[in-house]
Design a protein that fits this description.
Elements lengths: L4 H13 L1 E2 L5 H14 L17 H18 L5 E3 L7 H18 L2 H15 L2 E21 L1 H8 L4 E10 L5 H10 L11 E21 L4 E4 L12 E9 H7 L4 H6 L10 H5 L5 H4 L6 E11 L2 E8 L2 E7 L5 E4 L13 H27 L3 E3 L5 H5 L13 H4 E3 L8 H17 L17 H41 L4 E5 L2 E5 L10 E3 L8 H18 L7 H14 L16 H5 L6 H69 L1
Antiparallel strand pairs: 1-6, 2-16, 3-5, 3-11, 4-5, 6-7, 7-8, 8-9, 9-10, 12-13, 14-15
Helix pairs in contact: 2-3, 3-5, 3-12, 3-16, 4-16, 12-15, 17-18
Length: 664
């Protein structure tokens, strides 16, 4: 049954009311609280005159985990690798791997994308990115010199070309006087012969080109149906991205007139949510005033009658709709909650620890303040202003005996268990998150400092971090690269020339295959570099012995050297080592051709020789024809010249004869 636009809008509003991300929901509150804890803002239970210090456990944990996670994906030259469908497909899969990684990491500043994406997930439970195609105008200024009139007209007639500078001058290789004389000989008007011109021009060439764009989406701008059972949005029944856009942007993006967009302006008050305001540590909510021309655009992906549709809703009207096969968003979460879309963040694991540690630190500081500035019982014989001013060497004026007028009040000392409680909370945080003092290069008096003890601690911590990295890789990162591969294959209609593996190559996405198999390596950068160096060095030593008995190859040794180079922090191993697969010797090594292949090659050579001989004959014949034609033209010109001269002499003789007859 086909639904009307009003029925579809009603269904979308019904989905909004029961989806994750509803304004003022528990989820929004928890996310805004996580941001407050990350920024170290006061808890709201502070007492004036007492310590208000806040521990930064949430921030420390996230900032310690973030570099280790980013290193996994950006330390090497490839984030993902597309697997070939067969041996014959290896080269194509390698090229697609290189190009898609290039699109993500180079054309879209992949490090910045991954940094914000991962930080959103570690702080706000889930992180989102959007993949889409955008048409961009690329402008280039080019200069030409010595163009003919026809060449200039051909270039200037292109709608993509604009003439910036133009200089015209006579063609020095053409003698206009000779051309006019030849015209007179041919009984033509010499004034009709124009001087050929040459042109020097500077042009601006504008070319529209589709490009793949990736952008981070704030978690509060996403709405997802609650029955989504994991981070992936591929099977979600309802997904919506909310975004403020200007009227001109909406009109251009969806091919509408600005007047029509203004007529259906939407309510934008719901955009200002708790999470967005929580990030405003410098009162940006007052400076970030909403322009009157801004409107809330709801990019919605919903399943209706088993089919997925995209509806762009402005106000209560649908301004764009199309049937779609996928959702252009990729989502990650550090800890997956089984059967739920929203996961757990590092903030969820450390907020209570930050609260407890802050309370303990406040008590320690208050006790220290009290020890340095104790409380006293005084009589009316003591100068109150002097007593309230506490400073080293300060004088207190007292009438009479001071001992009878001032009596210090005893306060209980801080229990020693308070300091061990702070240490205990740190160890609890390490157990929950896997972020230890050794991960941060710090010393910890409470942990075993022996080599084996540190190794065990580091191994357990690395497993926790590697689990988060593997979770990111197998969910959102894989979805991101599949989305980019799909868009490159289906939307880019022109070949692209880029530099891959230190060589300029032409990539034509129209020849690509649909791929779902890919591998993502999360080992590099996840562990201790010294440990990896030791393992790689051992492998290289074993390969030296193995190559002598034929159980390894130069390519395998190159792979180990490449990993060793990447472990050292260099992204491009080919700057240091030569890949045997790219050497001329290796490229020249081919299997011996079969007898049938030799016969086919021989026949091809014979045909090529015949074709070359025939071509040479045709070229020789063409040369002779050109020479004959040129001789004809010269002879014809000489004949015409002789005729003209003879006619002129005859006319002159007749005129002289007439003159003589007239005199007689």
């Amino acid at each position: 049954m086909k639904l009307s636009d009003s029925e579809i809008v009603a269904r979308i509003e019904a989905e909004e009311s029961k989806s994750y991300g509803v304004n003022d929901s528990q989820l929004s509150f928890e996310r805004s609280e996580a941001i407050n804890f990350y920024l170290g803002l006061p808890f709201g239970n502070e007492v004036e005159g007492r310590s208000q210090v806040v521990s930064y456990d949430v921030q420390d944990t996230i900032e310690s985990a973030l570099p280790q996670l980013l290193k996994v994906f950006v330390a090497g030259d490839k984030v993902v690798t597309f697997d070939p469908k067969g041996p014959e497909d290896q080269d194509a899969a390698d090229q697609e791997t290189d190009y898609v990684n290039h699109v993500v990491m180079e054309k879209n500043a992949g490090f910045n994308i991954f940094y914000v994406w991962f930080k959103d997930a570690l702080l706000s439970k889930n992180g989102y990115v959007k993949v889409y195609t955008e048409t961009e105008d690329e402008m280039e200024e080019v200069e030409y010199s010595g163009l003919t009139d026809a060449q200039l007209q051909m270039l200037a007639s292109d709608d993509k070309t604009e003439v910036l500078e133009h200089t015209a001058y006579p063609d020095p290789s053409v003698d206009i006087a000779m051309l006019q004389q030849q015209a007179m000989m041919n009984n033509q008007d010499p004034m009709s012969i124009m001087q050929p011109m040459l042109h020097d021009v500077k042009l601006k060439v504008t070319e529209s080109k589709d490009s793949i764009k990736i952008k981070n989406v704030a978690p509060e701008n996403m709405m997802v149906s609650v029955d989504t059972t994991g981070p992936s949005l591929n099977d979600a029944r309802f997904v919506q991205h909310r975004e403020l856009m200007a009227v001109a942007e909406i009109a251009e993006a969806f091919n509408l007139s600005e007047s029509k967009v203004e007529g259906i302006m939407s309510d934008i008050r719901s955009v200002f949510e708790q999470e967005s305001n929580a990030r405003d540590i410098y009162s940006e909510e007052f400076d970030r005033a909403v322009d009157e021309d801004d409107a809330l655009v709801k990019d919605t992906y919903i399943k209706i009658n088993g089919e997925r549709w995209r509806y762009v809703v402005l106000g209560n009207q649908i301004i764009y709709k199309e049937k779609c096969e996928y959702v252009p968003f990729a989502c990650i979460t550090p800890m997956i909650m089984p059967h739920r879309h929203i996961g757990r963040s590092y903030s969820d694991l450390t907020q209570d620890i930050q609260m407890i540690k802050s309370t303990l630190l406040r008590g320690q500081l208050d006790n220290m303040y009290l020890a340095n500035n104790g409380r006293y019982a005084i009589s009316d014989r003591v100068n109150l202003d002097d007593m309230l001013t506490s400073r080293p060497g300060g004088i207190v004026r007292v009438s009479g005996e001071p001992g009878s007028a001032i009596m210090p009040l005893q306060h209980p000392p801080l229990p020693a268990s308070t300091f061990s409680m702070v240490e205990y909370m740190d160890s609890m945080k390490e157990k929950r998150t896997g972020i230890t003092a050794y991960n941060q290069g710090l010393d910890s008096n409470s942990l075993n400092k022996t080599a084996s003890g540190v190794a065990q601690i580091m191994s357990a911590a690395q497993q926790r971090i590697e689990l988060v990295a593997r979770t990111f890789a197998e969910t959102g990162v894989k979805d991101l690269f599949q989305l980019v591969h799909r868009l490159v294959r289906t939307t880019l209609t022109k070949p692209d020339i880029i530099r891959l593996r230190n060589r300029w190559v032409e990539v034509d996405p129209r020849e690509w295959k649909a791929r779902k198999d890919m591998s993502i390596s999360v080992g590099l950068g996840a562990g201790n570099k010294d440990q990896q160096l030791m393992h790689l060095t051992t492998i290289l030593q074993m390969q030296k012995e193995a190559i002598q008995i034929g159980i390894t190859s130069p390519e395998k040794i190159y792979n180990a050297l490449a990993k060793l180079t990447q472990n050292a922090g260099f992204k491009n191993p080919e700057e240091f080592w030569t890949n045997p697969a790219n050497t001329p010797e290796q490229e020249g090594q081919q299997q011996k051709p079969t007898e049938a292949e030799i016969m086919v090659q021989g026949q091809l050579q014979i045909e090529q020789q015949k074709a070359q001989a025939q071509m040479m004959q045709e070229q020789e014949r063409s040369k002779n024809d050109i020479i004959i034609e040129r001789e004809k033209i010269i002879a014809q010109a000489e004949l015409e010249k002789f005729k003209a001269q003879l006619k002129a002499e005859t006319d002159l003789a007749i005129a002289q004869l007439k003159a003589q007859v007239g005199l007689l």
